[in-house]
Specification:
By secondary structure, this protein is of the alpha+beta class. The protein has four helices and seven strands, in the order αββββαβββαα. The model has no long low-confidence stretch (mean pLDDT 79).
């Protein structure tokens, strides 16, 4: 219990086993097995069920309510919003809608090749691979990312 907040946590990555979500929340999971949420990250049809990341199908209100992609850049930001929203609801206030503009997509293809779409700029080949190695979540921390970029450039 944190500051009088009682909770139960059910957690698990969607890609390992999708079946439990659809058994626990029948009729509330999308085609990929993720729990359908509203814009405040609450499970549709539930008052006290919240979901984020690849376990959630979160509508992008700025993109025709199509779901956000299930990527780390979204999950990290959803985590901050859902934590605030849970406490906000417990305090009797209105939760905040999740809104985020995708920064871009990086995909390593192997053999020092990658493709990238960063804020509308498209890269491919070795340049995209350097970008992927430098800023992807494979290397934690900005300091380490900069060191990796210099090491790769040498």
């Amino acid at each position: 219990m944190v500051d009088g907040l009682r909770r139960r946590l059910l957690s698990g990555p969607r890609e390992i086993n999708q079946a439990p979500w659809s058994r626990i929340f029948p009729g509330n999971c999308g085609t990929a097995g993720a729990l359908v949420t509203d814009a405040v990250l609450r499970g549709v049809g539930f008052d006290r069920v919240w979901a984020i990341g690849d376990c959630a199908r979160v509508p992008d209100l700025d993109n025709g309510s199509r779901p956000y992609p299930p990527t780390a850049q979204h999950a990290i930001r959803q985590g901050k919003v859902v934590a605030d929203n849970i406490l906000t609801v417990e305090q009797g206030r209105q939760p905040t809608e999740f809104r985020f503009r995708t920064l871009g997509v990086l995909v390593a293809l192997g053999h020092h090749t990658a493709v990238a779409d960063i804020l509308g700029w498209r890269f491919s080949g070795l340049a995209a691979w350097f970008l992927w190695r430098g800023i992807s979540d494979q290397v934690p921390g900005i300091e380490k990312r900069i060191r990796v970029l210099f090491r790769l450039a040498a």
